[in-house]
Write a structure and sequence with these properties.
Layout: H1 2-5, H2 13-21, E1 30-33, H3 41-56, E2 60-64, E3 67-69, E4 72-75, H4 85-99, E5 100-101, E6 108-113, E7 119-125, E8 134-135, E9 142-146, E10 151-153, H5 156-185, E11 198-205, E12 238-242, E13 245-249, E14 259-264, E15 269-273, E16 283-285, H6 286-307, E17 313-320, E18 326-328, E19 349-351, E20 355-357, H7 364-378
Parallel strand pairs: 1-2, 16-18
Antiparallel strand pairs: 2-7, 3-4, 5-8, 6-7, 8-9, 9-10, 11-15, 11-17, 12-13, 13-14, 14-15, 17-19, 17-20
């Protein structure tokens, strides 16, 4: 279906018209509505039930302004145009946010202007992993899912399966991290990495727990000067395709690399950095370490959004071979003794618990600072000293 293969932002009238040309019938992934009825409470409940049903199933699209007969689209009739389209979309987004729990992250709405001067409202509902979602508008308090016939109310045994599915997805993501760390520690990396301490970041969408997702990583490659940044380079000219997807890396020194970023076809990112944790003096230059991560993470999230990945995502930070390391307040590699704490990290591996990223535009400090705090905790400090009391980055 054209709606599933085209980036959401690029979908226009021609793509919606293709649904008629290609005879794409209603089913598990798409539903057509000739009108948008959300005036009465009953109509709002029906609208929210449709949205939650897609989220509790496999995700999909609602096309408002499309006539159909027997489930087959027949005419792009459109809806009456709106004088303030942004306010129109915001009103519907607020209704969905307030009427469904838990919140559905990654949901997208778009007004498509037709040549007939009417509009189509296109709603994309991602497959959710924060299951199950229920309609809470006006104490409706019901759960729905969807199959090829349409939506249906969930029974108790269906709800139990959704709860198990959500937990299973989380565990699969943790297993993915553990398997990747084992490969890195064993030296099985896409490019040879320098020996020594490593900072490793994994960003994994909840959808990666399903083998069905397979993103086109070539969308991230613009030729010789690829747009993929590594931790310490805005643009990396070195990249290559591999079995897992697309990897970008810096210029090797004696055949070894300081860093690489691997984009997987399932929408995950793996960043391995052998540079930020110091050069043999067992000191973590905190400003370089934290500053590099907080600058790089939004760039990786932007790439995932371009691929068509939908939130939520797990962000997982790991520090490898750091036993005996102390934290430096300075951006320099060799600070004076009074600049760092007395206690050193007591274990070789620090596996920071995952944090959830619910939005591609989320403030990086809101979800990375707790991870940084735990690294400082391991060095005997109560929290990262690179943030002020209000949680704002200050560096040094």
């Amino acid at each position: 279906m054209i709606l599933q293969t085209k980036p959401f932002d690029d979908i226009g009238e021609d793509e919606v018209q293709r649904l008629i040309t290609d005879s794409v019938s209603e089913g598990q992934y798409v539903e057509y509505k000739e009108s948008l009825a959300i005036g009465s409470d009953a109509e709002k409940k029906e609208f929210l039930a449709d949205i939650s049903a897609f989220a509790n199933a496999s995700g999909g699209f609602l096309v408002f302004g499309m006539s159909e007969i027997g489930g087959l689209p027949t005419k792009l009739s459109g809806l009456p145009t709106e004088p303030d389209k942004d306010a129109f979309v915001l009103r519907i987004e607020n209704m969905i946010r307030d009427g469904i729990e838990p919140r559905i992250f990654g949901l997208r709405l778009k007004v498509i202007e037709l040549r007939s001067s009417r509009i189509v409202l296109l709603v994309f509902v991602p497959k959710s992993w924060s299951l199950p979602h229920w309609v809470i508008f006006k104490d409706h308090a019901k759960f729905y899912s969807r199959n090829s016939i349409g939506k249906y109310p969930l029974k108790l045994h269906d709800l139990r399966q959704l709860f198990v599915l959500s937990e299973t997805a989380s565990q699969r993501i943790r297993n993915f991290r553990a398997e990747r760390l084992a490969s890195i520690i064993a030296g099985e990396t896409p490019v040879p990495i320098k020996e020594g301490p490593l900072a490793i970041l994994h960003i994994v969408p909840f959808s990666a727990s399903s083998s069905a997702d397979n993103f086109d990583v070539s969308l991230l490659d613009d030729g010789y000067h690829t747009i993929l940044p590594t931790m310490h380079q805005e643009v990396s000219r070195y990249r290559r395709y591999n079995f897992d997807g697309l990897v970008a890396f810096n210029n090797p020194n004696d055949g070894l690399h300081d860093e690489y970023v691997q984009f997987f076809r399932n929408g995950s990112v793996e960043v391995v950095d052998a540079y930020s944790l110091g050069h043999g003096d067992k000191m973590i230059p905190s400003v370089l370490f934290e500053g590099s991560l907080r600058n790089a993470v939004p760039k990786y999230l932007a790439r995932l959004e371009r691929l068509g990945v939908t939130p939520p995502l797990f962000a997982m930070l790991s520090l490898i071979h750091v036993s005996g390391f102390r934290m430096s307040f300075s951006h320099l590699f060799r600070p004076s003794p009074e600049q760092y704490g007395f206690y050193a990290i007591e274990r070789d591996y620090l596996l920071i618990p995952e944090v959830v990223v619910n939005d591609f535009q989320a403030d990086v400090d809101n979800f990375m600072r707790p991870a940084f705090d735990m690294v400082w905790n391991a060095c005997s400090w109560p929290r990262s000293q690179n943030y002020d009391e209000q949680g704002k980055w200050k560096g040094r």
